[in-house]
Amino acid sequence: MTFTLTLKCPERAGIVHAVTTFLVGQGCDIVEHQQFDDDVRGSLFLRTSFRCAEKTTVDDLTRSFAPVAGDFAMEFEFSDGTPPRILVMVSKFGHCLNDLLFRWRAGSLGADIAVVVSNHEDLRPMAEAAGVPFVHVPVTPETKPEAEQRLLDLVGEYEADLVVLARYMQVLSDALCRKLEGRAINIHHSFLPGFKGAKPYHQAYDRGVKYVGATAHYVTPDLDEGPIIEQEVQRVDHTYSPRELVTVGRDAEALALSRAVRWHCERRVLLNGNSTVVFR
């Protein structure tokens, strides 16, 4: 079995030596190693995948590594090859959900889709055709607290490790964002310049944009301003109609979101303040 160690700690000499010495002592063989020294913030980030000759578990490795981590003030986590379980939230737009379902069934998503939750019924046929449970949780201003509690209940019921907002057209409360910190990913259109409100692609057309893009980021109480995981940009020109811009934009959204989900589930994304370190 392949395990992965991810860690963050203050930058100093001897960190990599300590990690590799520990792994050798456990009879492990490193199969992939990446690190990043953030000289500005004085931090080191590391991701190492390895195989062990002897039978072991995440708990065993965590206990054995604790003294090493303590010496270097490491924030660390071991994981095995078990695919994380994700809860996907949608509204009426199905392009991101369709892409995630395709990649999941093809075995390239790096996760298992446990359930689809929506405030509308429109995408039930898509989810159920893929064999995924679909739960309708309607939301109104009056019922929003109850709806968000229902969402948290579903996260526990389906043992979801990650929540993916695949064009879910409801703003989550600050309290819910804090409860899902570091384990909820959102996708939104991003333009240069940025267009907000209704029909952003029509606004982009009116301004003659030259690039259409999308941003996948972690959810925070600051709307659409969480740590960025991935961005996708496509060049366009004056020949693109609003409808064609929508098509290009949706392709960018689906691609950026699927990459972000896969990298998160492969433990390639480490939070670095308001930013991220992404080991590809």
From TrEMBL:
The catalytic site is made up of 224
Molecular function via GO: formyltetrahydrofolate deformylase activity
**Record carries keyword Hydrolase:** yes
Its pathway is: Purine metabolism; IMP biosynthesis via de novo pathway; formate from 10-formyl-5,6,7,8-tetrahydrofolate: step 1/1
EC no.?
3.5.1.10
Query: What is the role of the protein in this entry?
Result: Catalyzes the hydrolysis of 10-formyltetrahydrofolate (formyl-FH4) to formate and tetrahydrofolate (FH4).
- Write down what this protein is called: Formyltetrahydrofolate deformylase
What is the scientific name of the source organism? Answer: Amycolatopsis melonis
Point out the gene that encodes the protein: purU
